[in-house]
């Protein structure tokens, strides 16, 4: 994995997953997800790009919060949607 020095890392804050049990929008819609991503600016939990609704990417675009981390057990990485790169 190549890490990217990204200016959007300045937006990263200490956050708590909201909600802690799944994709916020999918839970409301009753929709399935594949993997979960945590917004590192506000704590929004959204579904990944392999999920039908891609809520994490939508949140990043709508709210200007581009850096997410995986919420999957055993995964420890961050991604910038703007640069399409690990950070």
From TrEMBL:
Q: Which PROSITE patterns does its entry note? A: ZF_UBP
Against Pfam families, the record matches this protein to: zf-UBP
What the entry lists under InterPro entries is as follows: Znf_RING/FYVE/PHD (IPR013083), Znf_UBP (IPR001607)
Under the heading SUPFAM superfamilies, the entry gives:
RING/U-box (SSF57850)
State the source organism's domain of life.
Bacteria
Q: Which Gene3D superfamilies match?
A: Zinc/RING finger domain, C3HC4 (zinc finger) (3.30.40.10)
UBP-type domain boundaries: 4-87
Entry protein name = UBP-type zinc finger domain-containing protein
